[in-house]
Amino acid sequence: MSGTELKPPLDGIRVIDLTRVLSGPFCSMLLGDMGAEVIKIESPGGDPVRGQGHHKNGFSWYFAGFNRNKKSVVLDLYSDEGRTDLARLLETADVLVENFRPGVLGRMGFPPERLEEINPRLVVASVNGFGSTGPYTDRPAFDFIAQAMSGFMSVNGPEGEPPLRAAQPVTDLVAGLYTAFGIVSALHGRNRDGVGQAVETSMVNGVLSMMAYLASEHFVTGENPQRTGNDHPLVAPYGLYNTADGQIAISPSNDQVLGRLLAEIGLPDLLSDPRFDSNDKRFARRDELHGILDAALASDTRENWILRLNRAGVPTGKIQTLKEVFADPQIQAQEMAIDVPHGDERGTVRMLGFPVKLSRTPCAARLPAPRLGEHTEEVLAALREGQVTGGR
Amino acid sequence: MSGTELKPPLDGIRVIDLTRVLSGPFCSMLLGDMGAEVIKIESPGGDPVRGQGHHKNGFSWYFAGFNRNKKSVVLDLYSDEGRTDLARLLETADVLVENFRPGVLGRMGFPPERLEEINPRLVVASVNGFGSTGPYTDRPAFDFIAQAMSGFMSVNGPEGEPPLRAAQPVTDLVAGLYTAFGIVSALHGRNRDGVGQAVETSMVNGVLSMMAYLASEHFVTGENPQRTGNDHPLVAPYGLYNTADGQIAISPSNDQVLGRLLAEIGLPDLLSDPRFDSNDKRFARRDELHGILDAALASDTRENWILRLNRAGVPTGKIQTLKEVFADPQIQAQEMAIDVPHGDERGTVRMLGFPVKLSRTPCAARLPAPRLGEHTEEVLAALREGQVTGGR
C-alpha cells in the first residue's frame, strides 16, 4: 500500500475539548497533530490564552502555538442550550478532555454516570493538579506550585543554593503528554472491548514520575538527592569546560568513553596517574581535574572540540540560546520550527514543529489555530442534520 | 459490561525491546504498564543499568524501577543465531523499540526494508539524541548534552547566574514518553489500515517542544527568554514568601485570584493603592511588594496559610524534598510509591507508581523487573512451537 493513501493515525477520532490555558490544550493539540478532529469548546469569552503573550496582527502567537489542528465552537455551558449541544456533541465523540478541578464537570451537569449514559464508548480524560482522590483534590493548580510540591524544585538548582523552579511549565506539559498517551491507549482498548473509560493525569504525579533514578536512589537509601548544579552528583569528569573561545558541555557515559576523551585532548596517561585512576579519586579531586581539562582544551576552539570529541564518540555540545537553537542546522533539518499560514490578517505564524516523526503519515498543521467560534455553525449544523462523523 | 472482565488497553500487543539505559526502557515500561507484553532483548552482559545505582540484596533498584512489566530474553545479536531468533521474534511482534544511534540497527542486519519484509505490520520505534536526519545524527547522545543544545539550560537558573541543567534526566524521559505516545498512535492507525510505520523521537526535539510559550514569545519578539529563577518574568506578586515558620510558594493566576489572596492576608486595599494598582507598577516595585507580603504572612504558620489560601482559591504550596513528597498524604492517596515483591532474594522493591490513572483497567505491576535472561527459554521455546501470541 502506498504511503500517500494512508490517513493520519487518529483520523476519524473526534475529540471534544473543554480545556483551557495549557495542560489540556497541549494534550488535545498532540491528538490533533496525530490526525484527530479536535473540537475546542470555548465559552463566549474564549480561552484566556487568546489574550496572553505578545500579539502580532492582533493575534497571540502563544495561543496559535497550542491550538493548531483544532476547530473552535462557542457554547455557553451555563445555559441549557449550551449543555444540550454539548451532550449531543458527546454522543458523536470518541474522547472528551477536560482540565477543570475534579468535580466541576459533574456540577456542570456531566457527572461520570451521565457521560456513560450519553456515550458508553467515550474515553473521558481529565488533567488536573493533584488527582481526583486525596486531601488536595479541590486545590487550585498552577505549574509553580506543582513544581514545588512534587520534589522537582528540591533537586533543581546550583549546589549550596536554594531550590529552583524550571522556567518551562514542565508540570503542565508532562501531564498533557501523559494524558494524550493514556487517551490513545484507552482508545486502543476500546476498539477491542467496546467500552470507554476515564483517564486521568495530574501535574504533580506526572512530573514526580520523572524523578527517575533520583527516586529509586531515594527509595533504596532513604536519603534526599542534593542539588548539584551542572556537576554530576557521582561522576567526574562531567560538566562545563573552557576551550580557547567558550564553554563546552562534556559527559563521558562510561570509562571507555572517558578514555577516548582523554586520548583526544592529549591526556592519554591521566587514567594511569594514581591521583585519577578511579572515579572516586577523580571525584574527590574534581576541581584539580577540572583545571587540567581546561588547560588541555585551551588548545582548540569550541566548534572544533565539539566536532573532534563527537567524532571520537564522546557526548559533547554547547549551551544554546533559543536564537542559536533555531539557527542550528540540526534543528532546521528536523523542522522544529514551522510556519503556519492563518489565511487572513493574522498572517503566517511561526511555531514549534512536531517532536514525533512518523514515516508514512507525518504530523502536519492541517488546520491553523481557529478564530473564536470559527466552526460553531459548521459543527452544530452537522449535528442538526445528523451528519455525525465520530463515535465509532 | 463489568470492568473486572476487561483486559488492560495494550493486552495482546507484543513489544520487542532492544533498548538500554534510560529513554527506551522508560518508553517500553510505559507500554508494559498499559498491558503490552514487553520482551526486553539483552546482550549476554545485560542492560548496563543492572550494575548502576545503589543495590539491595544484590539488586539495583534503579533497574527495577525502569523495567517492571518486562520479560528478559538474552540474545547475542553479534551471532547469526541471535539475529535469526530476533527475526523470528519480530515476525510475531507488533512493535520494535530501539535506542541505538541512527543506522546502527541497519548495520546489525535490520535495515528498514528488511524489517518491512519480516513484518509489514510492525511499528518500528526509535528514540535517539538528535534525530535520524541532519548533521548531528551520528553524534552520541546524553541527557546533559541534549539539555544544553535544546535551549532548556538557557532558561533554567537564577537571574544573573549561568545556565543550569535540571537534575532530572528530562530529555531521556520526555523522549521516551513521546515515543510511547507515537507508538500507540501508530498502532491505532495500523489497526485501521493494516500497515505499520516508523516512529521516531529525539531527546533534543522532545525537550525543545516543551519550551511552550517561551518559544512562541521568542518567535514573535525575536528575543531570547531570560533566566528569572523563582520569580515570574512578567507577573508580580509570584514566588516564594516567608510565613511565621517557613516559605510558601504563591502564584495568583489572574487579577481576580490576586484579589482573593490580598483579602485573605489582610491587605484588601492594596490593589487600590496607586503604587500597586497595575501589574506593571507591582512588577516595577516587586521587592517592596515582596516585603509587604512577607510582613502580612508573618501572622500565621506555613501549614495554615497553605490551607487558608487554597481554600480561598489561591494556588499555594511548599517546596518538598522527596522524603516529604512520599510522606505527603496526597501522594500516598495517589499511590505514587508502590512496593513490588520480586519473589526471590531480591525481596520487595519500592518504586514510583503510575501517573496515568485508568478507571476500568488501572495500570499495575503485573511482573517485577526480570532477572537477566529469565524468560529466554520460555519465549524461544514458544517460538519454536509456533505459539506466537502477537502480530495481530
UniProtKB/TrEMBL annotation, chains A, B:
Coiled coil regions in record: none
Protein known as: Crotonobetainyl-CoA:carnitine CoA-transferase CaiB
Record's keyword annotation contains Transferase: yes
InterPro entries documented for this protein: CoA-transferase_III_domain, CoA-Trfase_fam_III, CoA-Trfase_III_dom3_sf, CoA-Trfase_III_dom_1_sf
Entries under Pfam families matching the protein: CoA_transf_3
Keywords: Transferase
GO-annotated molecular function: CoA-transferase activity
Upper classification of the organism: Bacteria, Pseudomonadati, Pseudomonadota, Alphaproteobacteria, Rhodobacterales
Membrane-spanning segments: none
